[in-house]
Structure formats: C-alpha cells, structure tokens
Amino acid sequence: MRYNTALAILATSTFLLTVNNTKAADLEVTHWWTAGGEAAAAKVLADSFDKLGGDKWVDGAIAGSGSTATPIIISRILGGNPMGATQLNTGRDAEDLVKAGLMADLTEIAEKEGWADIIRPSKLFDACKYEGKIYCVPVNIHTEQWMWLSPAAFKAADLPAPTNWQEFVATAPKLKEKGLIPLATGDAWQVFLTFNVMISSIGGKDLYLKVYRDKDAAAAASPEMKAVFEAFAQARELADSGYVGRSWNEATNLVISGKAGGQIMGDWAQGEFSVAGKVAGKDYDCLLGLGNHPVLHTGGDAFYFPKNQNPEITKAQLKLASLLISKETQVAFNLAKGSLPVRGDVDLATANTCMKKGIEALNKLDNVAPGAGQLLAPDSGLEIEDLSKEFFADKNMTVEDAQARFVSIIERAQ
Ligand code: GAL
User: Fold this and answer.
1) Do 383 and 409 contact (CB within 8 A), yes or no?
2) Most distant CA pair in the chain: distance in Å?
3) Is position 399 within any domain?
4) Ligand 1: does its nearest atom lie under 6 Å from the Cβ of 66?
5) Mean of per-residue pLDDT scores for the chain
6) Cβ(38) – ligand 1 distance below 6 Å
7) d(Cα 9, Cα 396) in Å, to the nearest integer?
8) Quick check: CB of 305 below 6 Å from ligand 1?
9) Per the domain annotation, does 261 fall within a domain?
10) Residue 67: its pLDDT value, please?
11) b/e map of 12-32 (b: 16 or more CB within 10 Å)?
12) How far is the CA of 268 from the centre of ligand 1 (A)?
C-alpha cells in the first residue's frame, strides 16, 4: 500500500517533470476562427509565433460562432482547466474572470512596450483595463456595417449594381426571376447584426445612440425607428427560406459564387473573399452603412492569458502578447482577417479598396460609434436578438407590433 502510494507520488512527479520539461512551451491558444479566411488569419499568428523558436502554438480552434465559443472558453478558465491564451471579443466578456484574479496581468510588458501610445482608438484599449492594470491585447478593429455585393449576380439579372439599400431592394424582383437569392443571411446572430446595422445605416447615428446608449423610449417609438423596422421587413422578404441555421461564411460563399446579390456582414467576410482569390472593387463590392449613413460601430478581438503556475508557459504568454502587437504581425494578420490594425503607425499601402473605405471613414470621428455590445447589457441585447429573430421568421408579425415590443424592451433596458 505504502509502496503503491510512493509509486503514485513518483509517477505524478515524473509526470509533472515531463510536463514542465517538454510541454512547458506548448501554448494552447483557443479561438473561434474556423471559417477559411479566419483560419488563414489564425495561421499567420501561429506561424509567426512558431518562427520565434522554442515555444509552439497549439491550435485550440472551437467550431461555431462567438456565441458558442465564448461560454466554453469562460467555463474552462473558471473550471481550472485554462488554455495558454485565448481570443475573446474586445469588451466585457472577460470582466468576471479578471475580477476573480484568474487572468495574467500584462501591465509590465504593456508599459515597457508603450502599448497605450500605439493602440488606437484608445477606447478599445480601455476594454483591457481593470483597476489601472492591463489584462488583454487588442489585435484588430472589426466593423459590422457593410453590405457585400456580387457584381456577377447583378450582371446575370441585367441590372446595374446598387449603390444603397433602396436600390438594392428595387433589384430583388429581377434577381428572384433569375433564381438568385437577393439577400444571403443565416442564424440568429446574423439577423440581429442586420437589425443593428439598419438602426445606424437607415436611421442614422443619432437615432442609434438615442435608442441604444440613452435607452430613449420616445426615439424607439419614433417614425425614424419605424422606417428601420420597415427596412428590416423588406430584408425578410429578400432572404431565401433556407437561411435558418446557415453559417455566416456559407452566406458569404453564396455572394462569392454569384448565387446571391448581397450579404450584410462584418468586415471579416473579406477573409472569405480573399481565400477565394477575389478582388475587392472587381469581383465583389462593398457598401459602407448600406450606402446610406457611413456609421461604423467599432469592436474587435483581443487576446487574454489565463494565469498559469508554470514559468515556461508564463514566458511564452508574454512572448505571444508582444508578438501580437508588433508592427509586422499587425499588418500581416489584419490583411488576412479583413480587419484594421489597432496600431495607427503601420503601413497599410496594400489594403484593398474596401479596407481603404473603412480606414477613411474611421478617420472621421463623427462616423464612429460604440458597438451594441458595449452599450447594451447582455440581457437586453438577447431580448432584442429574440425579437429580431422572431420578426424575421414570422412574416405575419407587423412592423407596428414589432416596434411596440422594441419600445417596451428599450424602456426596461440597462
Ligand atoms: C466575431 C469576431 C470576428 C469574426 C466573427 C465571425 O465575433 O470578432 O473575429 O471572425 O466573429 O466568426
């Protein structure tokens, strides 16, 4: 018995030694970048990390969208089974983990490398701060207010490519005649994204801020907001019946293959066009703010590093953090991802025409607004997501009924 116990202790310590010696620099990195363009962008990070020598990026991709992956990532950390590093959206998702003392403090390296001076917009970096300390590295600026168009689909229907939402709607009957889908969309979060995009693109920035930031019920009940619901009702007429459960990249691929006229989606869609070898402005086009109001809601991705007792892992974590913010990685990764660098001091000469449109718009502060996830408490966001999903699926739900429900959600929203 005593012998067995001793053996068990020995086995455990040998195991730990093995882990320390051989696996110490194997850094498991979780993320939900599994679509073609996303995987290509993740590979840029993995390859750059491995090239530094010694430590290895162990890919922990989680299939599905952020809404599937985020709770898995959080529960692994809470459950004492942390990964070496993880992607999360830049925002409040990791707040509880930071408060619980489970995340590595990056303040020292952030100060040494002057992150506060190079990361823009500064609001994005604020999301990494808690009680004056730094807990994450933002890696990109993603914006959602885009419509991606297929010139081939409009050509097939003998139509000029639309330049705004109203023109897009007018092309739908001819596209349908040709057996094409006017608007490619997919599962609930994509429909919710469409609704949020429409508030600022159809209604304008003031309406968006009044409703989501100020929780102004009168603005939610206004004729301007009614026009947003009317545009959203047009959108549900333009989607095909097969949209339920379709992933965002499948929807993008309908645009790439010319089977759909357009898709309302974040700029990460550009990663898909890019792996398909498509050129912006030629094989596909983009309407910022649906061609109406060029308002961009800023958000993106950040990397977090759960605390670890193994000094080798801690060393590798800091090495990765520093790499993620370096000029070379910022350029190479963001060009592959379709997002914009968080550093303003990098050369983006090779950015395509759609990215250039985004950069130009972001440079005018008037065009910029916080993302819905930063303005609404998660519960309020979920209620609006449910409403948008139901409205989209049920053509019998009237604009008036949907708007009345929206007003009551905004009245209670946090
Ligand atoms: C977002 C994320 C992006 C993107 C998208 C679709 O949450 O910020 O990086 O890839 O999900 O997976």
Assistant:
1) yes
2) 85
3) yes
4) yes
5) 92
6) yes
7) 67
8) no
9) yes
10) 83
11) eeeeeeeeeeeebbebbbbbb
12) 7
Tell me how crowded residue 314 is: count the other CB atoms within 10 A of its CB. Answer: 16
Cα angle at 115 between 114 and 119, to 5 degrees? 135
Is the CB of 142 within 6 Å of ligand 1? yes
Residue nearest ligand 1's atom 7 by CA: 66
**Are 293 and 205 a contacting pair, CB within 8 Å?**
yes
Please give the pLDDT value at position 312. 95
CA of 315 to the centre of ligand 1 (A): 28
CA distances from 281 to 213, 248, 251, 300 (A): 35, 21, 19, 24
Q: Is the pLDDT of residue 15 over 50?
A: no
pLDDT higher than 50, residue 374: yes
The Cα–Cα gap between 173 and 152 comes to: 16
Strands 129-130 and 133-134: what pairing?
antiparallel
- DSSP character for 23? I
Structural domain harbouring 34: 2-141+299-344
| 290 belongs to a structural domain | yes
Q: Are 308 and 317 in contact (CB under 8 A)?
A: yes
CA dist., res. 145 & res. 86, Å (int):
26
Same domain for 224 and 170, yes or no, is yes
**Confidence band for 330, pLDDT divided at 50, 70 and 90:** very high
Total domain count, the chain: 2
388 Cα to the center of ligand 1, angstroms:
20
Nearest CA to ligand 1 atom 11: 66
* CB contact at 8 A, 222 and 385: no
Give the Cα-Cα-Cα angle 267, 269, 271 (nearest 5 degrees).
100
Enter the tokens of residue 244: 């339920």
